[in-house]
Each structure stands twice: as C-alpha cells, then as structure tokens.
C-alpha cells in the first residue's frame, strides 16, 4: 500500500475561538509561537495562524463572521508539547499572565510529567517534560 503521508506532510490543527486576541496573547505572547497569519477580512471567518517557522504544523483559530461556533473543549482535548525538559516556572507564570489558567489534568499522567493549562477558550495545553519517543 502506498501511503499518501510522510513526515513532511503539513498538519493544521483548527479550532474555533470566541476571542482571537485573547488566544493570540496566550499562544504568541505567553507561549512564544510566531504569528504566521492573521486576517479579519476573510469571507468566512477571522483567522489566526500560529506556529514555528519551518515546522510541519500550525495552529489555526477561527471566528466565523455570520455563525460563530462556540468552542466545546473537554478535559481530554489536549495540545501536548514534548519539551524534553521541565517547564520553567517563568514560562508557566507567563502563560497565566497572558490568559491561561493552570488546571489539574484529567489523566494523572500529565500531572506527573508536566503542567496543564487551559487557554482562554478552555482548550488544554500540556507542557510535558518528556521527550517524544516513538
């Protein structure tokens, strides 16, 4: 079977947001992602794309103009970043200062190996101290 995917296949994680500016503060000013694209004049929705230059992924948040979609995160909707080191207290504090809220993880694994924060829309970001190994 020929697989249509490769390690270089770009991944976009798209989610709705109620407040793109609050999300930008959390992910760009707090976490340190780059703002890759921001548009308020798209015909369908305001867009906020964030990531790292050259990465094969980006996070896109949308706010449809005519029919806003409310975020419906659950405690298991996680964006996990494998840092390979313990997240610094300064990073956690910066995320909290920029709209994040530290929460207990639904799965105790994440509390053992990292820090979980809710973004302004209630989605969870896990800063994991482990390396990703497959």
TrEMBL record:
Annotated ranges, domain VOC: 7-130
Entries under InterPro entries matching the protein: Glyas_Bleomycin-R_OHBP_Dase, VOC_core, YycE-like_C, YycE-like_N
Coiled coil: none
Source superkingdom: Bacteria
SUPFAM superfamilies hit by this protein: Glyoxalase/Bleomycin resistance protein/Dihydroxybiphenyl dioxygenase
Pfam families with a match to the protein in the record: YycE-like_C, YycE-like_N
Protein name: Glyoxalase/bleomycin resistance protein/dioxygenase
Alphabetized PROSITE patterns for the sequence: VOC (PS51819)
């Amino acid at each position: 079977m020929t697989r249509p995917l490769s390690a270089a296949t770009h991944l976009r994680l798209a989610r709705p947001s109620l407040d793109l500016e609050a999300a930008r503060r959390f992910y760009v000013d707090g976490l340190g992602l780059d703002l890759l694209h921001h548009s308020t004049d798209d015909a369908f929705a305001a867009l906020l794309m964030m990531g790292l230059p050259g990465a094969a992924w980006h996070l896109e948040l949308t706010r449809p103009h005519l029919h806003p979609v409310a975020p419906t995160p659950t405690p298991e909707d996680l964006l996990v970043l494998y840092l390979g080191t313990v997240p610094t207290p300064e990073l956690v504090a910066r995320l909290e200062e920029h709209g994040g809220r530290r929460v207990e993880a639904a799965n105790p694994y994440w509390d053992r190996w990292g820090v979980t924060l809710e973004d302004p829309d209630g989605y969870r970001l896990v800063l994991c101290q482990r390396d990703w190994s497959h």
